[in-house]
């Protein structure tokens, strides 16, 4: 029987390839359903377009599904999941499942297949993720009140939260991530069940933890997600070094990470999400000594690119929390040296982080914000002037050095280029071939005798 008026659920929002798979399964006597996050998102009017994001649940066994379609990839066949390839689209189809006892805080000891949709929904994590919709008949199955929770904006565990979290430590992390992505609250019983589940959460692989944190950080409601991590104790599992700091430092880190960075505004291009993630992760770790920030990144097994960026931004040479912008007294040379050290690409990220940090300095907020603003203006002026900032900006390269200085060694070429860079950082007007060649010859002539790399007498 069709439920009336499934507002937000329109079968035309389901890609034809997905409907085709549902139709074929139904014609073979296996009435099948869209389930999980995609139903949640369609009800929220968050339209999905990639057929790969439409999870189908079916009473057909994986073997029966394989027999019905020409091309089927046994993606996770032992868990009942296969990928049907139809007209270029890939659609995941999972047999209704039940699960045996959980053994390692992540995975059930065994999986059983059955024909009972409700039992399949009962094993899902949250009520808003435990709905099924048949777009062909327009029937919604919602045995746990997921729709009501959606409209009240609540994340509630299916069944007894303590038992569900004890089975699988990933669930509390997913819960906090949904808080960030959707702006929902955790139901009180769901939230209260988290602290005692922390030992189980600690069993989750670091990569999965990092993945959930990464997604939480770029959610539209990251502040709420981070606050959930902190107040439930999940932060101690996710970033133990941060969580071990005195409470005001932790709150400061979270406040900076929650700033509305430009890169974190919704609907930015993909690159901005990465930037947003980088800024927020760096902000979280900026209160740690650089070695500890590095250790945190290593322990989390962050993907390389992100890890490198976070390490550069959160600590080390340009420590955000260590006295604010360099060149505070305002010399243009200091500004150029700083720009040269961090690089054109990274500079705006530092400035964004400093600005965010400055806004959470209590009594010093006004002073610090002003310092950052002035430094930012100086940086902008240097960049507008197009001053040389790296060896690549010099009119002389390694080959020129080799031909200008007879007998120079490879190591000395590097030294010479750094010398020229320093020369033009002090005075950008000296960035000409003639002046730098002259400087180079002078340096070569005046260098102390080097027995290893003796030049001509
Ligand atoms: P997103 O795709 O944005 O991560 P999602 O809810 O679709 O959100 P998936 O990981 O794609 O999440 O999982 C699909 C569905 O599988 C979920 O909606 C939920 O019903 C179920 N599910 C996923 N992970 C778990 C888990 N750890 N425990 C119980 N059910 C889960
Ligand atoms: Mg999904």
Indicate the mean pLDDT. 91
CATH topology of the largest domain: cca-adding enzyme, domain 2
CATH homologous superfamily title of the largest domain: cca-adding enzyme, domain 2
Oligomerization category of the chains in this entry: single chain
- End-to-end Cα distance, whole Å, is 99 Å
How many DSSP E strands? Answer: 11
Low-confidence stretches: 1-5, 316-321
Structure, described:
There is one protein chain. The chain is an alpha+beta fold and 457 residues long. The chain has helices at 16-27, 37-43, 62-68, 117-122, 146-152, 161-167, 170-182, 188-192, 194-201, 206-217, 222-232, 234-238, 240-243, 247-257, 270-285, 290-300, 304-314, 332-342, 347-358, 365-385, 398-404, 410-426, 433-446; strands at residues 33-35, 55-58, 72-76, 81-86, 89-95, 97-99, 111-113, 132-134, 139-141, 154-155, 185-186. The chain has 3 domains: 2-152, Beta Polymerase, domain 2 (2-Layer Sandwich); 154-318, cca-adding enzyme, domain 2; 391-448. It contains 23 helices and 11 strands. The strands form 3 sheets. It has a 7-stranded mixed β-sheet. Strands 6-7 form a two-stranded antiparallel ribbon. A hairpin with a 4-residue loop joins strand 8 (132-134) and strand 9. Helix 7 crosses helix 9, helix 14 (247-257) runs antiparallel to helix 15 and helix 15 (270-285) packs across helix 17. The longest helix has 21 residues, at 365-385. Mean pLDDT is 91; it is low at 1-5 and 316-321. The structure holds adenosine-5'-triphosphate (ATP) and magnesium ion. Residues 37, 53 line the site of magnesium ion.
């Amino acid at each position: 029987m069709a439920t009336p008026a499934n507002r937000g659920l329109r079968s035309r929002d389901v890609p034809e390839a997905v409907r085709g798979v549902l139709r074929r399964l139904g014609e073979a006597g296996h009435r099948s359903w869209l389930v999980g996050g995609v139903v949640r998102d369609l009800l929220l009017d968050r339209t999905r377009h990639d057929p790969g994001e439409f999870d189908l649940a079916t009473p057909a066994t994986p073997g029966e599904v394989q027999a019905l379609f020409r091309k089927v990839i046994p993606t996770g066949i032992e868990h009942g999941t296969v990928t049907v390839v139809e007209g270029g689209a890939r659609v995941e189809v999972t047999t209704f499942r039940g699960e045996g006892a959980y053994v390692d805080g992540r995975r059930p000891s065994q999986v059983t297949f059955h024909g009972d949709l409700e039992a399949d929904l009962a094993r899902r994590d949250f009520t808003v993720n435990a709905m099924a919709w048949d777009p062909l008949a327009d029937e919604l199955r919602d045995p746990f009140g997921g729709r009501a929770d959606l409209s009240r904006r609540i994340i509630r565990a299916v069944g007894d939260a303590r038992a569900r979290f004890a089975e699988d430590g990933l669930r509390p992390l997913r819960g906090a991530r949904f808080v960030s992505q959707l702006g929902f609250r955790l139901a009180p019983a769901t939230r209260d069940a988290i602290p005692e589940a922390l030992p189980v959460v600690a069993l989750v692989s670091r990569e999965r933890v990092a993945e959930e944190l990464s997604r939480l950080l770029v959610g539209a409601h990251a502040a709420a997600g981070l606050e959930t991590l902190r107040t439930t104790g999940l932060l101690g599992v996710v970033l133990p070094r941060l969580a071990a700091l005195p409470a005001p430092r932790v709150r400061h880190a979270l406040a900076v990470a929650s700033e509305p960075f430009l890169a974190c505004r919704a609907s930015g291009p993909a690159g901005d999400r990465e930037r947003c993630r980088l800024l927020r992760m760096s902000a979280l770790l900026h209160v740690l000594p650089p070695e500890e920030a590095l250790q945190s990144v290593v322990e989390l097994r962050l993907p390389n690119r992100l890890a490198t960026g976070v390490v550069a931004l959160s600590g080390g040479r340009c420590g955000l929390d260590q006295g604010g912008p360099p060149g505070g007294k305002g010399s243009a040379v200091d500004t150029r040296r700083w720009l040269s050290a961090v690089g054109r690409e990274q500079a705006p990220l530092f400035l964004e982080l400093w600005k965010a940090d400055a806004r959470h300095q209590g009594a010093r907020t006004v002073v610090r914000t002003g310092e950052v603003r002035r430094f930012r203006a100086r940086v902008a002026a240097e960049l507008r002037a197009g001053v040389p900032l790296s060896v690549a900006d010099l009119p002389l390269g390694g080959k020129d050095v080799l031909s200008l200085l007879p007998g120079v060694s490879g190591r000395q070429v590097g030294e010479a280029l750094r010398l020229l860079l320093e020369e033009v950082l002090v005075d950008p007007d000296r960035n000409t071939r003639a002046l730098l060649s002259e400087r180079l010859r002078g340096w070569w002539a005046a260098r102390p005798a080097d027995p290893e790399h003796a030049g001509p007498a």
